[in-house]
Amino acid sequence: MSQEMSHTGPLLKLDNVGISFGGLRAVDQLDFAVEKGHIVGLIGPNGAGKTTVFNMITGVYKPTDGAILWKDRDIGALPPYKVAQCGILRTFQTIRLFSGMTVLENVLAGQHMQTRQAWWASLLSTPGQRREERDLRERCMAILDRLNLADVAHEPATSLPYGVQRRVELARTLAASPELLILDEPAAGLNDQESAELNTQIREIRDSGVTILLVEHDMNVVMNVTDRIVVINFGRKIAEGEPLSVRNDPQVIEAYLGSDEDEDVA
Ligand SMILES: Nc1ncnc2c1ncn2[C@@H]1O[C@H](COP(=O)(O)OP(=O)(O)OP(=O)(O)O)[C@@H](O)[C@H]1O
Ligand SMILES: [Mg+2]
User: Fold this and answer.
1) Mean pLDDT (whole number) for 204-216
2) Total structural domains in the chain?
3) Which residue in 70, 139, 172, 198 could disulfide with 110, CB within 3.0 to 4.6 Å?
4) Average pLDDT for residues 250-257, to the nearest whole number?
């Protein structure tokens, strides 16, 4: 609470962040901020360093330089579970669902860390625990409903079509009540209709009070949903601004035309 009141800057701020893997400078002198309530896109050609940026924000990699500020506090050295406890939660570039579990069970697993009950309470079936369990299931069902997944709640998650599995992953991440939701290529592998639905769902999630940072190659998603875009190439920021200005930036066009991407920004 006191932390909430004391922070004056943006929700998330990367300040001169860099990381090297051996001799490779994967991210260099990167500055950008994510304001509360915004949808920010991080784009760039394959290998530009986008996932690495996400891995640094979420504590998977420690930046070798600079600071990652969450509500003015440097979280650069925190392990992933502590970053998650801050309210920073992510989906992955490739699907990571639990096989052998239903859709609802996968989503319940995502919510697990939100549980207020002490660990020993789950060994006994106390009335508090049963009530909590029921509330959790209701919350998860509401999330499934919002993402059009209620019909498949009791299906084995990994037996579903790819596009549906991606939505289950999103549901599972939402179940942990993110304050900042980090999405790594959420539209990858989706057909046009699914990708259009995703646009709507991302905006709805933002409107429900969640700030969003996303990496996406699908320009239809990037241009339509983001408030601000940061473009990186070879680990460095080459442009930043509103979607329209970024789209017309000569350096951005060149970075994309010079890559093997078939989506170009022009
Ligand atoms: N753990 C690691 N060890 C060594 N090199 C790494 C590691 N992680 C990433 N890299 C390198 O850092 C660079 C950036 O990779 P990264 O995965 O962040 O790119 P990306 O922008 O997410 O690309 P894509 O669009 O293909 O997902 C690449 O050259 C990659 O090989
Ligand atoms: Mg990536």
Assistant:
1) 96
2) 2
3) 172
4) 84
Ligand 2 center from residue 50 Cα (angstroms)? 5
174-191: average pLDDT: 93
| 198 and 76 in a common domain | yes
- 24-34 and 211-215 beta bridge pairing: unpaired
d(CA 127, CA 131): 6
**Alpha-carbon span 44 to 73, nearest angstrom:** 27
User: Which ligand has its closest atom nearest to the C-alpha of 45?
Assistant: 1
| Residue 93 belongs to some domain of the structure | no
pLDDT at 116 over 80: no
**Ligand 1 site-directed mutation target among 46, 50, 260, most atoms within 8 Å of CB:** 50
Using the CB atoms, write b or e for 204-223: b if 16+ within 10 Å: ebbeeebbbbbbbbbbebbb
Ligand at shortest distance from the CA of 28: 1
Q: What 3 state SS string does 118-146 have?
A: CHHHHCCCCHHHHHHHHHHHHHHHHHHHH
Between residues 128 and 46, the one the model is more confident about:
46
Which one of 176, 203, 218 terminates a domain? 176
Ligand 1 pocket list (CB less than 6 A): 21, 24, 26, 44, 46-52, 93
Q: 10 Å Cβ neighbour count for 52?
A: 21
Amino acid identity, position 170: L
Which CATH number is 73's domain given?
3.40.50.300
The residue whose CA is least distant from atom 11 of ligand 1 is 26
How many whole angstroms separate alpha carbon 124 and alpha carbon 114? 19
